[in-house]
Amino acid sequence: MQKDFHFYVTYALARKAGRSADDAATIAWADEYTDRQTDEDIYEVQTQCQELDRWNDPQIQFTVLVPFHFIPGNDEKWPWKTTQNSPRAQKLVRAAEKSQDLCRLGIALHSLQDTFSHQGFSGWREEQNACYPWYYLKSAVPNVGHAEMLAMPDMVDRVWRDPRHKGSKIDNRKRALDAARATLRSLLRASGTPWREATWSAIKQQLRPIFELEDYDQRKVELRELSGDPSIDYARTHKRIAKSKRPAFVRAASAHLSAAVDTFEGLPRVPPS
Length: 273
Prior knowledge:
Blueprint: H1 3-16, H2 21-33, H3 40-43, H4 58-69, H5 87-99, H6 102-117, E1 159-162, E2 168-171, H7 172-191, H8 197-211, H9 216-227, H10 234-263
Antiparallel strand pairs: 1-2
Helix pairs in contact: 1-2, 1-7, 1-9, 2-6, 2-10, 4-10, 5-6, 5-7, 5-10, 6-7, 6-10, 7-8, 8-9
């Protein structure tokens, strides 16, 4: 997913779950920053790799793409395939909730949210990820994750077709609503607040038209209003808290990585080719 979900939806839902503005900002910042921490040489942990040519590196696949963006699901035929709201993703989220570490919760929520948008793909280089024949220009990118579909699976307003499955229709708006529900459930658990279906129903009715907006910037405006803080902004939040929160983020990312690798027990250990 993109910043409109990872930061703005997460912030709005954290506020709805009763978090203070500062706590909500920290959780949402860590969620979005998971897509931005690329300085492994400086901080010894990397949560994103933006250079597609490096996605061919098995080390990047195993320590960055799989544990932070493509959590393996529960498909017996394709063990490393991401499936939405999978038991492994839930285990990571619950560990983060128990830790009471806001940065770790944000990171775990990022991974959970990505199980909805990245479902059907894996973080390894595998033929099952291939969407186009070799002679298509798009096939020049590696068959890792949804690289051949570019950003399409991450755009919450899009309806698209998966070339791998006879052009089956994928509605990102529905996936985004499902991800928002799972996110709210986690945030409420972390706050010790019971789940109420009526609360979610009301929020869902507000989110549905926002996810249908084609204008990305307008979506952010509407999400700011939904949060009750029309001035909330990722860039300003990052400028305000990154320096003080980055060490905590690095520690939390290391803890998440370790916990994620532990959940891979029993999966094929040799990287697929």
